[in-house]
Amino acid sequence: MKALIILPTYNERETLPKVIEKILDQDSFDILVVDDNSPDGTGKQAREWAARDPRVNVIDRPEKLGLGTAYVTGFKWGLEKGYDCCIEMDSDLSHNPEDLTRLIEVIAGGNDLVIGSRYLRGTISVVGWDFHRLLLSKFGNFYASKILSIPLTDLTSGFRAYSRKALENINLDEIRSEGYSFQIELTYLTWFAGLTVKEISIIFTERAHGGSKMSGNIITEAVKLPWRLKTRELWRRFKGIFNDNQSPDVDTSKIGGEHKRHVI
Description:
Oligomer: single chain
Number of helices: 8
Low-confidence stretches: 246-260
CATH superfamily: Spore Coat Polysaccharide Biosynthesis Protein SpsA, Chain A
Number of strands: 10
């Protein structure tokens, strides 16, 4: 399976070389660094890697444009280059590169989205967070999963793999979310496309260098997004019922993807 690891970067100079080395130690993966003109020279560092190793690729963006758009850019590039799977991964060593093989194996087994969960089976697999940060994350996941009726434990995880089929079934041009909201929206779109979603357990370690990119705007967006998605879902269902009443030829059985969606 041809797999691409997408690494969005902004001031990750201290950790990026370590992440790249650990990924390249495994033969199964190529890398795409999407750098938002990092002031600390992360982009230059990534380009130097790319110059000496064909498995490393770089997209330079002119300014800080956000996590969501970085991943969308990476997904489009990966699809264009013919990759079978695209993996989201942080560049700060929060995610263990040794878990990449596990993600790929689950995709190869016929799943469309594999999420590295910090909260699977009632556990909390997080190292280095204080109680406030942990509570915020746990509540945010509970809040989003209940509103959207998606029985998953970690909708906001940033360590995940998408099959080519999943990305081709999502209109990437319509996505506007950033931060944790981006992860929620992509999970929702995959789930309600009727595709197969699976969670596997991972250990998340708080970054050793740099600061968290959490902000008030990211939290506000994450609070509003589930209601926006739910409203859109209900509106589409309403239109499907209305159209069905008007025209017996309209098939509404697939609206919302309920006919196929699975959680494992």
